[in-house]
Amino acid sequence: MGQFDRLEFGQAVWMLLGIAIGSVIVVGLTTYIGAFLFAVFLYFATRPLYHRLNAALDHPNLAVTLTVLVVVLPMLLVAGYAVIIALQELNQFLATHPLDGIRAYLQPYLGLVRERQFQRLWELLVTNPEQPLPPAARRVIRRVLGRVSTIAGLVFAVLTQLFLVSIFLFYFLRDDYKVRDWFFESVDHDKRVVEFVAKVSNDLETVFFGNLAIIAVSGGIAVLTYYTLNFVAPGGTVVSIPVLLGLLTGIATLIPLVGMKIVYIPYTALLLGTTATTETPLWHPLVFFLVTLVIVDTIPDFFIRSWLAARSGVHMGLVLLGYALGTLAFGWSGLFLGPIVVVLTVHFGHSIFPRLVSNLSAD
C-alpha cells in the first residue's frame, strides 16, 4: 500500500510539473498567438513545396531554408515596395510645398546636429529662453516626431512578427516528423488517434495550400491584368501602382466574406473621384472595376475553389464559415484559427464522437 501511494504521489508530481511547463508555454505563445497561427497556416500551405524540394535536393536544411525564403521574400518585397511608394509621395510633397520658412527656423538646429553638439541642441530646444522656437514650429516638430515614432514602432512590430513566423515555420517544416513520431509513440500508435491526426493534417494542408494558391494566382493575375490594362488603354494610365495594388489584391483574398473587394472597390471609388477633379475619362474606373471583377476576382476563385472542393474532406462552405466566425471571435488571428477548429470539429464528429457514443451505450 505504501509503495502504491508513493507511485501515485510521484505520478502526481510529474503531472503537476507537466502542467506547469505547459502553462508557461501557453502564456508565452498567447503573447504572439498571431505569429504562431500564421506560421501554422504557412506550414500546411508550404509543406508540399518543402517535400518536393527535399526529395530533389536530399538536404533538409537547404530545402526548408528555400521554402521559408519563398514565403518571406515576397512579404519583404511588398513592404519594401510600399515604403518606396511612400517615399516617392513624400518627395513629391516636399517638392511642391515651399519650406524656406521652416528651413530658416531649423537651420541653427540642423547645424548643431551636423556638428554632433546634442547637449547644446537640447538646451536650445528645451531650456533656452532667449531663442525659443515659435509655437507653430514646436507643434510641427512634435507632430513629425510623433508620426516618426509611430511608424518606427509599427515597422519594429512587423519585423518582430515576421522574424517569429520565420523561426516557427523553419522548425515546423524541418522537425515535424520528430513531433509526429513522438506523439504516436506516446499513444502507442493507437489506430484511431493515427487516423484522426492523418485526416486532420491532410485536410488542413489542402485548405491552407489552396488559400496560398489563391493568393499567389490572384495576385499574379491582378498584376498582369493591370499592366495590360495600362498598356492597351488610351488616354493615360488607369492603374498608377499596378504591382502594389495587384499584390494587395491577392493578399486580400484571405479576408473573409469581402475578399479582394476591400481593395479594388475603394480604388474604383478613388478613380471616380479623380474623374471629377481631373480630365481622367469616366471609362477608366468602369473598365477597371469590370476587368477586376471578372478576370481577377471571379474566374480564379471559381476554378481554385472547385479544385479544393474536389480534394478536401471538409465542405468549403464550412471552411468559409470558419474564416468568418474565427475572425469575428478572435480578431485577425482567428483568420487562421477558425479553419483549424472547423477541420478538427468535422473529423471529431465523423471519427471519434460515434465511437464514444457507441462505447457509452454498450456500457
From TrEMBL:
Pfam families: AI-2E_transport. One of its GO terms (cellular component) is membrane. It is a multi-pass membrane protein. Its main location: membrane. It is found in: Membrane. The chain crosses the membrane at residues 12-44, 64-87, 148-173, 208-229, 241-267, 287-308, 320-348. InterPro entries: AI-2E-like. This is AI-2E family transporter. The keyword DNA-binding does not apply. It comes from the Archaea. Belongs to the autoinducer-2 exporter (AI-2E) (TC 2.A.86) family. Keywords: Membrane, Transmembrane, Transmembrane helix.
